[in-house]
Write a structure and sequence with these properties.
Length: 190
Amino acid sequence: MKGSEQRAESPATWNLLKGLIGICFAVQGNEGGWKTAIESYREVRGITTGDCKYQAGYDLLKQVGSFLLEHPDGKVAFGEAPTGPGSAACPYRVTDLYIPIGNVDEAAPGDIVEVHGTWPSEVRHVFLDGRKQDVRPLSEGDEDKACCHKGITLFEVPQNLQPGTEVKKITLAGDGFELTAPRGFTVKAP
């Protein structure tokens, strides 16, 4: 989909981005960025999508835009950005596991399991009860889903797991993070 088509489909998102870019330019000394931020804020005021990235951007634009509208001669000063756990716009977590066929709590050796969630960078390894597994590449065209918001990671259930084995803890690991899935699965016969 081309940018113009995406803009027509979701004008609020594009206006929000325009306003945030205006803020970026303004804090770098381009005073015209404040006007862009105000105009964009007027366009998106009261429009929410439920998406955590949009909401975080909207909250920032709302704070800056409403301040500028109330204090046209005022100056906005930005402090340090929050860091550490809980500072991300979208909380990092594994939201679910998708097992290809049959019972959602069972997977056979060789099955490909999808792990869905939000993580800060690419998932490098999956651990099943502490045993490291390789991450499977996504099919072509799905690269954008590997990271980070609404990401997908795939792994293959190891061939050496015996039917009846309970995999209780599934952990995703990447650069500086580990996330545990909300549930595991039982190995079934192929």
